[in-house]
Amino acid sequence: MIQATIIFEFCLAILAVVLAHLLGLSWQDQLPGWSEASFGAAWTWGVISALPLLGVFLLLDRVPVAALREIRDWLQQMLTEHFAEATVSSFLWIAIAAGVGEELLFRGVCQRWLATIQGFQIGPDGRYAPVLAILTTSLLFGFAHMLSWTYFWLAFAASVYFGVVHVLSDNLWSPILAHACYDFVALVYLRYWSDGAPMQINSS
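The structure corresponding to this sequence follows.
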């Protein structure tokens, strides 16, 4: 299950590359290389951007709302049943794969393409196109993660956040890293710490 999840997420990245080519989207300016000055800023943006999202996640984990408890219980059951042998490094690879695959597809392709099509050019000089693109992409992201209506809206909100990070940072590394950091901490927290004493961590 671990390998299948990682492969699936990286397949989303391949799909994103194919779609970007077909739609004529270039990522050259969106993925600065490590030697470029903007690379460090992009990664700083990504790490800092993950912090508010993680704060909200930890807060919601403590809120006594039935719908949120059901989601947490389902996620913990899934992690226990299908990722029982997962190590911390396994969760890291899953998070990296999800950050790369999902952000290239949803932010790198969907959001960027939608912001350019004629129907989204609303307002003076199409100034509202990025907003409509973020909201539409986030609806798609929500449906792709729809375990329940509550989870749909949580995923929608997270996607809006990643979309704003993408627009403000003007690169893809920032939302990729923010997404990966969030997923990694959330997975490890749900597997080992949530709602009880810490469990023994397999870090090998």
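The longest helix spans residues 88-114.
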